Amino acid sequence: MSRPDPTRSTALLIGTATHSQQALEDLPAVRANVTEMARLVTTGPVDLVAVERCTQLLDLAHPGEAGVTIAERCGEAEDLLLVYYAGHGLLDDNGELFLALSGTNPRPDWLKYTAIPFSWIRDAMRDSPARTRVLILDCCFAGRALNTMSAADVENGLADRSEIQGTFTLTATSDNVAAIAPVGAEHTAFTGELLSLLRHGPPVRDGHPDGEDLTLSAAYRHLAVTLPSQGLPRPRQRNTDLAADLVLRPAPAAAAAPVAEDQPANEPPVATPAVGLPTSAEARPVIDTLSRPQRLFHPLHRELLRAHWRRLAQAAGVEAVFLVLLLGWFISRETVPDQVGWVDGDLMLTFLELGAAAIVTALAATAAGDVRDGFPGVARIKWGLAIATWGVVVVILLVTVIIWVLTPVFGDDMIIAVPFIACLLAWFAWWLGGRRVNMWWRTPVAVATTVGVLLYATRGPAEEGTLWWQLLESHSLGLLWTVTGILVIGFLVVTQLEDVVTGHFALARRPLVVSLSKQGIGIQTRTHNRFIAWHHLDRIFVAGNILVIAFKRDYPEVEKPREFTYSTQLGGFPVADLRHFPHSRAEILHALSHFAGATLHGVTPPSRDEDWLPTRPDGKPALRYSDRWSTQ
Questions:
Q1: Where do Basic and acidic residues bias regions lie (predicted)?
Q2: Which of 104, 208, 354, 395 is at a distance of 20 to 30 A from 596, taking alpha carbons?
Q3: Please, which residues have CB within 8 angstroms of residue 376's CB and are 6 or more apart in sequence?
Q4: Is the alpha carbon torsion for 74, 76, 78, 82 positive or negative?
């Protein structure tokens, strides 16, 4: 017998409770099936899967919404893969099984376009690297899945080749029997009995040995006896290898150990520690209040702003390097000999020039990564530094070439005005760009043009050498690069410092308290205090890091919270960013599952690329914490 590792296991729970086609009857109990199954498999004593690795798909409209998720979740599982479906099972003209969705057209020739082909789930589970795979189907004609899952694995030797222990398939009915959903019952017949078994363990009348773990095979034996005795269809199962030995619910620890024969009667008995019972099986405390910390530099705030602090430290480090270069510049100037030569201090100044140019070029190369990470402002500052420094060289080259070309035509007297015309044109473009379009690069271009023209115009007499030789002798370009770097990176440091400080203030000055109870959810902000009953909500779900509520269709518009902004992208009213509470994601999801019950469905894990970024009202990443989503 084996117990899976919850952190390496995955559960995919799919259910369809409502249907747009009148030919398919709504199954309100399915929603309770999925949410209660999610609560049980992610909490003790069952605790098969970590909360963040349990995905619920409820009332999807189109199979395209499920296909990618099914493949991704099955591919993520390493230890246990649990796939559950509750809803209508339908057959096409070829007898193939399809799983109904909210938008499914039950006509046999339309099923392949509007329902989930069972072959999708079959193939995804076969391709999964999970050691143990469990499929539970609570739908009509579910028994047809038995011949397409486990038997195929035995025939093609997949289990032997990939070290997969096996597959256990449990269905509510055989291949030609309809599943039962009692009218008015909280759960469907099959799933309700299974949930009761997971919640309380097998009753003594089953003949289950006291103190033993509940395995998949023992669960099936219980269901195969209990359901037919109630006049319900007999479930079916198919097992390969050792999958049936998976422990669903560990046996409870003995309340007290027996008194040893040699133990004195007046001494309390010594408790025998439970053997083999994982600590994760212990019931976790349920949080009923989620509150944002209000301290300015709370550890949670520092963690949320970790990326911003890191970028600030990097910018400060680069600024320190430029200051060291400038200090070395002044020290080296004192050591330059009277005669010009590439020795001693003059050689040191050359290395300082190369160092400044290398830093500017390296910063420009990292700007593309800043754009990809969601910091275009930082990228523009780095690109602006490169334009302002290397642009001077480009301007001098262009002016030199233009004058060399035009001198034979207009003469020396007229050509002297070319640099100044170029300068005027650059600043006119800067002014026009600010009024017409938002060209962020106009300022560094104008600065580079002006400085380049000034360097060209202030060159010495021809007998003192060419312009380039004069610049090399005086090291003017190197000093320009260093000073420009200090100014621009200093501006970047100030910008990022302002972002960090405003981020801390934004997090600390926007209070939010979310209270959970069996009756509903309370949301308290600085200006509003609202309580919403669960029966008024169609659903409460987590999209990435955002907690969202969606009201029932008949809920009056005037009663909906005006203090929240409706998000079309999320399909509801965002309430909170889970990361802004001093509790783990698993603890918060556990609390929501405990209190919200059937109202909770749909937990989408955050994207790896967006998990560390703050969020906006539409659920997309924000670039600054002062612009992030908040409840006022």
A1: 607-632
A2: 104
A3: 370, 623
A4: negative
